[in-house]
Write a structure and sequence with these properties.
The protein is an alpha+beta fold. It has eleven helices and 16 strands. The protein has three domains: 119 residues, Translation, Eukaryotic Peptide Chain Release Factor Subunit 1, Chain A (2-Layer Sandwich), CATH 3.30.960; 110 residues, eRF1 domain 2 (Nucleotidyltransferase, domain 5), CATH 3.30.420.60; 115 residues, Ribosomal protein L30/S12 (60s Ribosomal Protein L30, Chain: A), CATH 3.30.1330.30. It has a five-stranded mixed β-sheet with strand order 7-6-5-8-9, sandwiched between helices. A four-stranded antiparallel β-sheet has the order 3-2-1-4, covered by helices on one side. It has a four-stranded mixed β-sheet with strand order 10-16-11-15, sandwiched between helices. The structure holds zinc ion. The site of zinc ion has 8 residues, from loops.
Length: 369
Amino acid sequence: MLTVLKDTDIKGLSEVYDSENRGSFISLYLNMDSLDTKFVGRRKNICKSVLKEDKELLDNFEKTMQMIDDYLSKHGGEKGQKGLAIFASKIHNFFSVYPLGLPVENLLIVDTSPYIRPLARLVDEYEAFGLVLLDSQRAKIYVVSSGKVGYKKKKAADIINKHKKGGMSQARFQRLRKGAINHFFSDVSEDVEKLFSNDDIVRIIIAGSGNAKLMFKNILPPDIKSKIVDIIDMDFDDDGLVSKAEEIILADEKETREKNVSRLRDEILRHGLAVHGLKETREAVEKGQIELLLVNKGYKIRGWICEKCQVVDSGVKDTCPYCGSRTSEVDVIEEIIEFAERTDTKIEFVGDNPILDELGGVGGLLRFK
Ligand SMILES: [Zn+2]
C-alpha cells in the first residue's frame, strides 16, 4: 500500500533521536521512477569508510543497512510507486518504511535522528484535494492525496428522460425532471461533505460540462464552497481530468505560498506578528509561537546539535557548552523543521523567492508574541 503522508507520521519521526549524539539513524530516500540500482551500494561504501574508526557506530551501520537491504530485496516497488523513504536504526530497534506515490531525490543520510525534510516538503507541496466530476445524472468523486488517486464514489441518478411520455403536460414533466436533478445533486453533496470535510482537504475542484456544475456548486454548504479553487468545463468521459486538476492545484498552492511570503513581509514592516532570520525563528519555533513556518526550499545552514540537551545553534562547536558532550554537526534548518513538526507547526517550503532570501531564508508568522 502506498503511504498517504500525514503530519502525524512526520511528527512521530521528528520525536525520534539518539540521546547520546551518535549518528545511529539511517535515512534512505529512493527515486523509484528511475531507480539507480548502484546508489545504495555507493553510499554504503562511502559511509563505511568514514565510520571505520568508530567500531560501535560501524557495527550499527552495517546491521542497520542489512535490515534495509533485506527490505529492498523483498519489495520491488508496487503499482504507482514513485518514491520510497526508510528510517532505520538497529540499536534503537527502529524501522519505518513509506512507499510513496510521489517522486523523491536519492539520499542516504547517517545522522543522530531521522532526516525528515524531504518528507515534510512532500506533505506541504502535495496537499490532498477533492475533485467532483458531474453532469445532471452522473457523478464521480475523487480524493487525491500524496499522489494517490482515491476513486471514492460513483453515482448515477434515476432521472426521467429528456423527452416526455404521453399524457403528461410539458410543465409537469419539466417540474418532475428538475426535482429529480435537485434530489440527485443534494445526494452527491452529502457524499462530498462526508468525504471532503476532513481538515486535510483544503482545496476542491468541480468539473463537468454545461450548467450542472454551477447548479451543484450553489447547493453546497458554505465550508465546502469556500474550499473551491476552480470550476472547470470538462466532458464527463474525458480521462485527462486528474492531471488537469493537479495542474490547477499546484498553481494555486504556488499562489498561496507567495501570498504567505507577502504576509510575512507586511507583518515585519508593521513590526507585527512575525520573526525572520535563523536566531529569532529558531527561538520562536522552540517556544511554539509560530503559526506558519516559511522555509526556503534549498536553504541549509551548518551548525551543531546536542541531542542530550536538545540545543541547536549555527556555527561550529565540538562540545556542548551545557553538558560537555560531544556534539554532532547538523543542518540547522533541518533541526528547526524537526522542532516545528514536534509542536504541530505548519511548514511552507518556498521556492526561489527574493523576499524570503533577503530575510535570511527562514521566517515565521506568529500566533502570539
Ligand atoms: Zn549538551
